[in-house]
Amino acid sequence: MCTSIFYFFLAGLLALVIRAQLSQPGMMLVGPHQYAQIFTLHGTAMIFLFVVPFALGLANFLIPLQIGAPDMAFPRLNAFTYWLFFFGGITIFSGVFVNGGAAASGWFAYAPLSEIRISTGEGQDLWIIGLLMTSISGILTAVNFITTTFLYRAPGMTMWRLPIFVWEMVATSLLILMAFPSLAAVLAMLFIDRHLGGEFFTASAGGNPVLYQHLFWFFGHPEVYIMILPYFGVISEIIPVFSRKPIFGYTGLVLSAFAIAGLSMGVWAHHMFTTGVVTNGFFAAISFLIAVPTGVKFFNWVGTMWRGSIVFTTAMLFAIGFMLNFLIGGITGVMVASPPIDFQAEDSYFLVAHFHYVLGGGSLFAIFGAIYFWFPKVFGKMLSERLGKWCFWLLFIGFNTTFFVMQFLGVMGMPRRVYTYAALPGWGNLNLIASIGSLIMAAGVLVFVWDIITASLSRKHAPDDPWGGYSLEWWTTSPPPEFNFVSLPPIRSERPVFDAKHPELAKEQPG
Amino acid sequence: MRSSRLSLSAGLLLATSGCGVYALPPGATMQAQVLRQDWIVFTLAGLFVAVVVFGLILIPLVVWRRRSDEYPPQFRRNTKLEITYTIIPLLIVIVLFAITYRNEVIVKHLSPRPAGTVEVTAFQWSWRFHYPGTTINIVGTPQAPPQLVLPIDETTRINLTSSDVNHAFWIPGFLFKRDAIAGVKNSFDLRPTRVGVYLGRCAEFCGLDHALMSFSVRVVSRADYNRWLRARRSSTISSTKGGAS
Lengths: 511, 245
Ligand code: HEM
Ligand SMILES: [Cu+2]
Ligand SMILES: [Cu+2]
Description:
The complex is a heterodimer. Chain A is about 65% helix and about 0% strand. By secondary structure, chain A is mostly helical. Chain B has two domains: about 1-110; about 115-245, Immunoglobulin-like, CATH 2.60.40. Chain B has helices spanning about 1-15, 30-65, 80-110, 220-235, 235-240, and strands at about 115-125, 125-130, 135-140, 145-150, 155-160, 165-170, 175-180, 185-190, 195-200, 215-220. Chain B is elongated, with a radius of gyration of 25 Å. In chain B, about 35% of the residues are buried. The interface between A and B is large, with 92 and 88 residues. Bound molecules: protoporphyrin IX containing FE and copper (II) ion (CU) (2 copies). One copper (II) ion (CU) binds next to helix 6 of chain A.
């Protein structure tokens, strides 16, 4: 978890360079080749070294606690996957020190651009090897999660009493098991092409560049849900606690997670609408359908807050920010899933806005929410609610300032991945606004760093259950002892700790 | 007050998102009129969903804030309501799909008898426009972007491919792009409806000078087009260089 945050800071710095470069037309802070390395590393690190591993790290801590287990099923495998991930990240970044620099063909490294004839540098190879390491790490972690959840639950913890976060991680793990092998395959094929005389993706030698896109997105789309399902889980843990009510529509939430996971295996070619060689109608239809279970989740969260008693803690603010931002991301998602819209939006700043709204406004906000919620449990120290609120408002305002205007730039015709652009009417100003927003976000992150430092240095100890939590992690000490629990309360619903503390409310009321 | 700040920012977000479509170019081809319609339908549908769901999120924040230590009613489900809120979005996306599907069929339709054809080849980092049946062959460079000339109110078939990495042929003023991929021949029709010069650019990252890989499209009347063809034919040698006159 901490390592993934370290990679987040690295990738965040890269993003600031990108925004500085684009703040005005014709800026020459970095050259085209440096710029390409920067956006490649930014995307790769945010996705593979931050958003996914943070979720896996959090789940590693939480799953055993929430199901009442002493540890993960395979602790040694667990340590192995951590080091694979850690050195995978180092391998990718080490590209900056070799001849020709780091990989510079984007986070999806389309062949033939990433082939040896064109991307001659070793940076691309380090990128392939580093990603292979992280993908193997992900697969093994998924096996560990599934085994742990199915076999290590405490007595009384039936599947239908699992906290939603655990359910979402089961769905995520299944997706990892289905999708990551495709990534590993395409990386291996690219490596064979580059060094062992393969021609998988070379049209002139009978290969097919479209094959690369199919294999990549067969992994790549499930990957985006691997990056959000865990955070749907996080939000589904935070909202009920601070609405002081049970989660609304538990069964619907669980079923929607699996509906999303299932459907997301069948939409990969919506990333290829403009290739002209896929059946757009089919992939558009399935993509639209995903909006339905996603909508169900929204209504469940609203139902949880409805007639509740809402407490505005920092974690809750981030959960609310998540919903507001992610809604915009979801709506633009359905828009770009309509091929006629995608013909303009694909590879434009409109698309950049879409995926930052889901990943930045969504996953990132959920990550901050998770940190403010579970920091006391993990480290036994309280973060400051006052600083936390500053952090939230700076991030929320900065985020929307940065990414909202990108939608306009996109429809006006600004393509992504350009290191410079012409001084067309409005472009300079909109880009400047985006860049100012990124500085506001950076200020929010600085407040957060300051909060972490002061909290870590403070002597004050966090209580075991600072929020009136529901799931089993709030039963044990902060931080938990070795083997997690000394005792367990009886488990009769998905919120055993609440039931134990409020026996008079434990009985289910008809709704 | 905290929640009112939240609702204020959400309101601002909404107000501005409505303007998205105004930034959209009017669309200067017959196909673009259909594409534009799709944008408008989806933007309106999106705004509707945004208003409803933003409202549903913000209402509890204002109305049901914590006022006492007492726990609110601990209800957990309402099956009828849950089925309703599954079915309504389902109906919405079915309608949206029908609209999308119809629009895409129109845009992708290939005329059996296009008035003219242009072979477009993308390469690192510019474009080659070849008019089959003539010797016209316009090749650009990043510094001197080439110009494609099309007659107004006639259907021109574009056959698109790449001679190296993936590129994408994008004319924002036509609301349209298509990928250029080696080994794939992509065909589509353009039927311009407005005289003028439109910027075009590569949309798929293709290496160092991707940002400079632009071109332009000049839409002219039939008479001007014929004049241009004649002038071009008589000067094929100079036409292999840089931009069109
Ligand atoms: C309602 C749900 C969603 C729909 C219908 C949707 C649809 C799409 C479509 C059609 C594209 C491809 C557009 C193109 O390449 O032109 C896309 C791109 C993308 N989406 Fe979504 N999306 C949804 C939710 C999400 C979520 C939850 C995430 C991640 C947390 C996400 C992350 C991304 C990313 C990263 C890309 C860009 C990939 C790239 O080209 O670099 N999307 N989305
Ligand atoms: Cu996708
Ligand atoms: Cu390009």
